[in-house]
Write a structure and sequence with these properties.
The chain is of the alpha+beta class. Helix content is 58%, strand content 7%. It is built from twelve helices and four strands. It has a four-stranded antiparallel beta sheet. The chain is globular. The N terminus is likely disordered.
């Protein structure tokens, strides 16, 4: 088996959930959960985007906006699903019954929609508007508009960094980050051209260029650039402009992360490095039972043997699935 020096994008992506991992391949996705009794539950379903499949939605910089919203919707849905395995059994509340009755049995979907909207509003308030208001307090001391724009961006990155570090101190989040690492290791394993075995996954890197953490860093970086060059004098218009540019920022960031996942040239490596270093905080080394869950999720929606044959040109020897070929551990691709 020839060792490859770079990854071949498999097209699959994932997300860590409570005691589990979701893997998505095109419209199909699978959620594997380690239940309290130790068994692994695997749920396979189809998730369609918010708009019909048409050429406009697929245009560069436009597709990223809808992909971001759809990812958020799916993410909240599967997080709620994983949490359901660890919730205390209880009767449905009167509010749940009333909402479900008024919505014709679609109360859960409405609640998910409300949760998505609230999540977006909170993110906009904390990471877009709050840095602007904090930087505006410095106008008496900093007269240079360019410097103020840079300070606003620096505050935005600091708030994001503090948020990531803060939640990583929580025990449940630490385990979530371990499952995040398991998700990345599985994807890196097959994209390096290796059979999906425990040995190969455990020695693969937990850092990946297409990670959502890197996407969020690109969002921060792109916002700094746009807000630096696009300026208005009226404070109210400045606030509205920051909100109005969010889809543009998301669209540009999506194209950058998409390029990063498909290219390995020096420029891509440089712009990807900060986000990948930040992944050292949002991913942790998983335990083998966590990797087992992630592998189940991959196998439920992705034929990795066919991928290895088509992309790397070799048939998987069944003996490898028992012991796995030996080799050195990957270095993080930064």
């Amino acid at each position: 088996m020839t060792k490859k020096k770079y990854n071949r994008s498999s097209g699959i992506g994932g997300q860590a959930v409570l005691e589990g991992v979701m893997m998505k391949n095109k419209d199909d996705y699978a959620v594997a959960i380690r239940k309290p009794n130790g068994e692994i539950e695997v749920e396979v379903d189809v998730f369609r985007g918010s708009l019909p499949d048409n050429k406009i939605v697929k245009l560069p910089f436009i597709r990223g906006v809808f992909n971001f919203v759809d990812s958020l919707r799916l993410g909240i849905k599967i997080l709620n699903y994983s949490a359901s395995f660890y919730e205390d059994e209880g009767e449905e509340t009167k509010l749940d019954k009333a909402l479900d009755s008024a919505a014709g049995g679609k109360g859960e979907g409405i609640l998910m929609g409300i949760t998505t909207v609230v999540s977006i509003l909170l993110a906009v308030g904390i990471f877009i508007l709050l840095p602007y208001f904090l930087s505006s307090l410095l106008t008496e001391y900093v007269r240079n508009a360019s410097l103020l724009a840079i300070l606003e961006g620096a505050i935005r990155i600091l708030i994001f960094f503090a948020y990531v570090v803060g939640i990583s101190l929580m025990k449940d989040i630490h385990r979530l980050y371990q499952y995040h690492g398991a998700e990345h290791k599985c994807i890196n394993c097959i994209e390096k051209g290796r059979p999906l075995t425990m040995h190969n996954v455990m020695r693969s890197s937990r850092i990946h260029k297409r990670c959502g953490t890197s996407f969020l860093f690109f969002v921060m970086f792109v916002s700094i650039v746009l807000f630096f060059f696009i300026r208005v004098e009226n404070p109210a218009v400045r606030i509205l402009l920051r909100i109005a540019l969010i889809p543009v920022i998301a669209g540009i960031s999506y194209e950058i992360i998409r390029l990063a996942g498909r290219s390995d040239n020096i420029l891509v490596r440089i712009i990807s490095a900060p986000g990948m270093m930040l992944q050292r905080l949002t991913t942790k080394e998983p335990e083998e039972d966590m990797v087992e869950v992630a592998m189940k999720s991959v196998e439920a929606v992705f034929d990795w043997k066919a991928y290895l044959k088509e992309t790397f040109g070799y048939e998987v020897d069944e003996s490898w699935l028992v012991d796995g070929p030996t080799g050195e551990e990957d270095e993080d691709d930064i």
